[in-house]
Design a protein that fits this description.
Layout (H helix, E strand, L loop, with lengths): L12 H14 L7 H29 L12 H67 L7 H7 L11 E4 L5 E3 L4 H12 L11 E5 L13 E8 L2 E7 L6 E8 L5 E8 L3
Parallel strand pairs: 1-3, 2-4, 3-4
Antiparallel strand pairs: 4-5, 5-6, 6-7
């Protein structure tokens, strides 16, 4: 195979003369045949119609009422759109919570105001009731009060008794001890050893039986028979009250005050 030259060699003067003669013999341009002209017209009309149709489609897509062109989104765009939706939802939730908190705060304020008004009303009612009660108490204070158990103890016996120092009877017996863990047994033993016979007993006065070394300050111990004892390593008194039926109350009292440490009901002596 031989390579063809890139350009044709220039025509020689004789070749140019031959070409001119051929063109002169051919004459001017001849008219197109009718069938060829019809085909060309149809082709041109079809091209014009296609161009007009494409222009109409473009105009309709640009119209405000047109549905527009749907362009598919890439994955990154989808993720961005999802994040935007999440942020918008979070912001809406925050706004809703803030609005709810404001409503609750207003409700709490109203409730507190209502409660305060109710409290003031109750305070006024309580003040009025307090004045009424104070007035009633002032009237009641003028009336005689009921006797207390201590008063009842001092009121027993003949008139003229004012809770003076008890009448003391000395004994040669040693000072007896009263133990909290054996209270009843110790009191029963003292009852049988120290009290007089029931037929001769006088409970209208206060009588103290104790050794000469027993020291106890005077106080209102009430009527009955008192016996000096030692209780919890301290001097104390056991008071035997007037029997009631077949029973008798025995009390352990504090020296100097008459406060009751223990009170026990025993069987009265026969």
């Amino acid at each position: 195979m031989t390579d063809s030259p890139e350009h044709d060699p220039p025509l020689t003067p004789s070749q140019e003369a031959a070409v001119r003669r051929a063109l002169a013999e051919a004459g001017g341009p001849e008219p197109l045949p009718d069938d060829v002209a019809d085909r060309l017209d149809k082709v041109i009309a079809g091209l014009a119609a296609e161009r007009a149709g494409s222009a109409t489609v473009v105009a309709e897509s640009m119209h405000p009422e047109s549905r527009g062109v749907i362009v598919p989104l890439d994955p990154a765009a989808r993720r961005r759109r999802a994040r935007v939706r999440v942020l918008l939802a979070g912001a809406a939730a925050v706004v809703a919570v803030a609005a709810g908190a404001g409503i609750l705060r207003d409700s709490d304020t109203a409730d507190m105001s209502t409660a305060g008004d109710s409290g003031l009303a109750r305070s006024d009612d309580a003040a009025e009731k307090g004045e009424t009660l104070n007035g009633s108490r002032g009237e009641a204070a003028e009336e005689p009060t009921a006797a207390t158990p201590e008063d009842q103890r001092g009121a027993e016996g003949p008139e003229g008794y004012e809770g003076t120092a008890p009448e003391r009877l000395l004994t040669d017996e040693p000072l007896r001890k009263v133990r909290a863990n054996r209270l009843r047994a110790d009191l029963v033993a003292i009852q049988h050893a120290s009290l007089p016979h029931p037929a001769t007993a006088d409970y209208s006065r206060t009588t103290l039986t104790a050794p000469a070394s027993f020291m106890c300050e005077d106080a209102d111990y009430g009527r009955g028979y008192l016996v000096g004892v030692e209780y919890d390593a301290r001097p104390a008194l056991v008071a035997f009250r007037k029997p009631v039926g077949s029973t008798q109350v025995a009390e352990v009292l504090v020296c100097g005050t008459g406060d009751v440490l223990h009170s026990t009901t025993l069987r009265a002596l026969d």
